[in-house]
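Deliverable D2.4 — example input (structure tokens):
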């Protein structure tokens, strides 16, 4: 865990400067996190979230694929406060799907609910189905 902290401190120092963070450091951070997660007995949602964010940082915003959990979280934040979501999105605080992507997913969910005529709620459908961004 101390290796991960040292690596994260180095990534933070680079992110505060003008130089981009080398992808190899982010890959090392992801590998360290994955080893730590694998050593745990239970699934740690916080570490999984951090690992996904690190992976998304290395990809262009046009080639990112978001997990169903992150998509649900993004939708819930956007639903609660669209202005807060816009701040998180435009300040590059987190790697989040665009508002257009969320609207596209919402459209697919509504179409699925009409076709199914079931009592499934939105979050259940969103986590159970694979969506393309």
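Example output (designed residues):
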């Amino acid at each position: 865990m101390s290796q991960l902290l040292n690596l994260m401190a180095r990534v933070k120092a680079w992110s505060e400067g003008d130089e981009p963070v080398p992808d190899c450091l982010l890959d090392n951070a992801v590998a360290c996190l994955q080893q730590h997660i694998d050593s745990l007995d239970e699934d740690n949602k916080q570490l999984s979230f951090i690992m996904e964010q690190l992976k998304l940082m290395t990809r262009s915003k046009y080639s990112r694929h978001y997990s169903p959990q992150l998509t649900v979280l993004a939708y819930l934040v956007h639903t609660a406060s669209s202005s807060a979501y816009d701040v998180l999105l435009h300040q590059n605080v987190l790697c989040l799907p665009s508002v257009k992507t969320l609207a596209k997913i919402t459209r697919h969910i509504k179409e699925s609910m009409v076709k199914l005529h079931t009592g499934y709620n939105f979050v259940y459908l969103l986590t159970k189905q694979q969506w393309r961004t």
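Residues 99-116 form the longest helix (18 residues).
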